[in-house]
Amino acid sequence: MPKAATSARPSTRRSSRLNNQDPTAAQAAETTSMRLRRTRTARRSTRITPSELIRREMNLELRELEVKRKSDELDERSRSLSRKEDEAATILSQIATRQSKSILDDLEEHFTCPLCFEIMAQPFSLNPGACGHSFCALCILRHFFSRLHKACGGWHESVDCPMCRSLLVITPDRVPRLDITFPFVPNRTAAAMCEAMIEKLAQSSAGSHLVVKREESEGNWPPGSEWDMEWGRKKGRSKEEEELEVANSDLACWREGGKLRAEWLKRDREGKKEMQVLLTCWTTFRSQDFVDLKQRLGV
Ligand SMILES: [Zn+2]
Ligand SMILES: [Zn+2]
Ligand SMILES: [Zn+2]
Predict the structure, then answer these.
(1) What are phi and psi of 216, to 5 degrees?
(2) E strand or H helix at 185, and its extent?
(3) For residue 148, how far is its CA from the centre of ligand 3 (angstroms)?
(4) Contacts for 162 with CB less than 8 Å, ≥ 6 apart
(5) pLDDT tens-digit profile of 193-251?
(6) Which ligand is nearest to the CA of 133?
(7) pTM value?
């Protein structure tokens, strides 16, 4: 028994000695076996069973369907967005048109010249305090000079206001005339208002935007699409839309480059010039000068 114990002890000692002597060899052996085990496992996992293959294919198909559904959803969302953008643009331009129209209505209601029925250009009032009526400079000059006696270049009777018949002071034949006999007074408040409102109208551009937007939409959407059907409903225009269209064409005449704006600017310029001439020379103007001015005014 003690013999066996002694024989066992050296063997243990040997193996421990072996381990102590060469630890790297043991580690290397262990690493190799681990690597082998791992390779075997990997090989087993690449082998796919047919049912697994079918399952994966189905999965892929499902994912594809999902992607397509999402892409359709995105398309629809983008279409509805551009539709909403279009509607917003239309509403904005309708608001702008309404605002401009209300400016034009105010202008026509409060600043129409009673002689030419256009928006007053370079407004002047008549001298008598009780009158207070205003007209375009050119209009009131024409009215005044239409009463001038061409043969002698003088006024033989008082000229009256075309509205209230108030009488103006008779223009003295003798020079120098007094300043206070000048028959016209500039209406500066009306002039400033007209100018500001006409400038606002010139800057408004909503209407043209509305028209362009419409044409674009009609061209862009393929016939038969959902949008086209909706558009068809919109094509049957409401009364309000027709009114806006009319307002739009009225406003177009007052925009930059518009016909009425150009005419107004011309009347404004000419009226200012002729009034200026008459005002600066009033005290010294002789009958022939008055006749010349009458001819220039074409009355
Ligand atoms: Zn006028
Ligand atoms: Zn009057
Ligand atoms: Zn005369």
Answers:
(1) -60, -50
(2) strand 184-186
(3) 8
(4) 114, 115, 133, 135, 143
(5) 999 999 999 998 755 444 444 444 444 445 445 555 555 455 567 888 899 999 999 99
(6) 2
(7) 0.69
What is the dihedral angle through the alpha carbons of 31, 36, 40, 45, rounded to the nearest 10 degrees? Answer: 40
The letter for the amino acid at 143 is: H
For the ranges 116-125, 198-207, 264-273, the lowest mean pLDDT is seen at 198-207
111, two tokens: 């600043």
Query: What is the bridge-based pairing of β-strands 184-186 and 134-136?
Result: unpaired
Q: What are the start-end ranges of the H helices in 133-205? A: 137-146, 188-203
Residues, CB-to-ion distance under 5 Å, ligand 2: 131, 133, 161, 163-164, 166
175 CA distance to ligand 3 centroid (A)? 17
Kindly state the helix (H) or strand (E) to which residue 136 belongs, with its residue range. strand 134-136
DSSP annotation string for 17-57: HHHHH-HHHHHHHHHHHHHHHHHHHHHHHH---HHHHHHHH
Segments in the chain forming alpha helices (H): 2-21, 23-46, 50-110, 137-146, 188-203, 206-220, 226-235, 239-252, 259-281, 287-297
Cα separation, 228 vs 216, whole angstroms: 13
- For 124, the enclosing helix (H) or strand (E) is strand 123-126
Distance (angstroms) between ligand 1 centre and the Cα of 120 equals 5
Tokens of 186: 């500039």
Please say whether the beta carbons of 159 and 183 come within 8 A: yes
Nearest to 161 by CA among 181, 178, 190, 139: 139
Neighbours of 29 (CB within 10 A): 10
Ligand found nearest the CA of 290: 3
Ligand 2 centre distance from Cα of residue 205 (Å): 38
Kindly identify the ligand whose nearest atom is closest to the C-alpha of 190: 1
Provide the residue type at 32 as one letter: T
Residue 297 alpha carbon to ligand 3 centre in Å: 19
| Burial class for 252, CB neighbours closer than 10 Å (0-12, 13-18, 19+) | middle
